[in-house]
Amino acid sequence: METGITKSKVILEIKNLNKSFGSNTVLKNFNLTLHEGENIAVLGKSGSGKSVLIKCIIGLLMPEKGEIWAFGDKNIPSLGLEELDIIRSKIGFLFQSNALYDSMTVRQNILFPLRRHWIEMDKDHEDLLVHETLQNVGLAHTAEMMPSELSGGMRKRIALARTLVLKPKIMLYDEPTTGLDPITSREISRLIVELQEKYKTSSIIISHDLNCVRITSDKVVMLIDGTCYALDTFDQLKQTKDPRIREFFEE
Amino acid sequence: MIQLPNRWGEIVEETGKLSQFAGNFFVQLFRPRFEGKEFLRQCYTIGYLSLGLVGLTGFIMGLVLTLQVRPIMLQYGVEAKIPAMVSLSIFREIGPVITALIFSGKIGSSIGAELGSMKVTEQIDAMEVSGTNPYKFLVVTRVLACTLMLPVLVLLADLIGLYGSFIGINIHGSTSFALFFKQVFEAMSFGDVLPAFFKTFVFGYAVGIIGCFKGFNSTKGTEGVGKSANSAVVLSALAVFIIDLIAVQVTDLFNFT
Ligand SMILES: Nc1ncnc2c1ncn2[C@@H]1O[C@H](COP(=O)(O)OP(=O)(O)OP(=O)(O)O)[C@@H](O)[C@H]1O
Ligand SMILES: [Mg+2]
Q1: Is beta strand A91-94 parallel, antiparallel or unpaired with respect to A170-174?
Q2: Are residues A160 and A232 in the same domain?
Q3: Which of A142, A183, B165, B218 is most deeply buried (CB count within 10 A of its CB)?
């Protein structure tokens, strides 16, 4: 396994990332390398800075120090808005709270990311795209509904569909299963795997749901005290004796 | 006592942020990609859906004012001046201010709450990530709609207020519609109407900007959303009075020179 990973291309590389809010240091010399086709989970306590980490990757937060190299040659914190936008269109971000636009129908939500191209598609083309995208997450019939009419699990699926409409190369999932019942959680985890295979994405999955981590990821990063405390496969980490890691795996 | 400097620091910081936020409107307004559809949608919710409320308050305002001043005017024997007096008060002061206050209660709070919940549920972040400038899409459209719709609403409230006054006069005495409006228009000059009309644009802008600012700076949690809606109303109502005060001074200045 190890050799297989080192052979494939590095698609995202985080070097010495530092981020703090006032006196609250959240990330301290954080390092992480994501290879093409790889799915890495980030485990950490609530408030440990997991969301901050991926918001730095997508350029929503500006780190004080450190580099984030995407697709080999673009250092995200140093990009201007135009270049950042191009990078962003290749990175999908599933928000912790779904972030579906309340005032728009599911259809308008799905089509919203296409506004970045500044041109309007013709209606048939749009219909086809919306149908195809919703079909991927098994909700083709909801196109004309409002987000408020959907259940939590359905909303998560729609949000997932919306991030996939631009066919991103990298996917960032911010706690994709929190707030869902165990059965729905498993469904969402499976769906993530299915979409990883279908769209050949590489992904970073933030979670504290061990089942979700086990199903969706190849490797796990332990984010403790703002650094990459450990990086290994799920099964290896589960057997470790280190008490700071053990506490995540205890029932 | 120890708290005081801290609080002042906060106020200064907040004022600075607000000024920057407000100034950004003029920068973004003229940058390409005008969000026409969203702007029209906002005009509909901000303007059209406020017509009923504003019309009703305008009517009551004119009626009550007339009934209130009538005994005094009678006492001084200048009953015939009621239309002139009422219309001047409505056009110069009461119409713009009362309508702007109602507007800040209805629109300021709803913008604060809407954008606040969008902020808290990461919808604003999502917009930015999908390549749409949230300031342009959410703030510019709403503030522009507020700036253009409030003057229209004020004009409507003024006219309905006059009608209310006409009814008020006819409760006790009687006057004809033609006579009433003749007296109104004789009393008024452009110098009365124009400055009052101009300040309504500023009222609308202020209510919109403050609502958006409070919403955009909502802190985490649903509690934060309620807070932003609340402080949006309080602050924009206060702003209406302050702008009114300044507007009066400025108008005076121009009248004397
Ligand atoms: N915009 C911000 N301003 C100030 N502090 C922030 C901001 N965003 C996050 N923080 C702080 O950074 C720390 C990490 O927050 P973060 O949201 O990344 O946690 P998390 O690991 O995602 O937790 P959870 O599992 O609850 O989502 C917290 O202490 C939080 O208070
Ligand atoms: Mg988080």
Answers
A1: parallel
A2: no
A3: B165
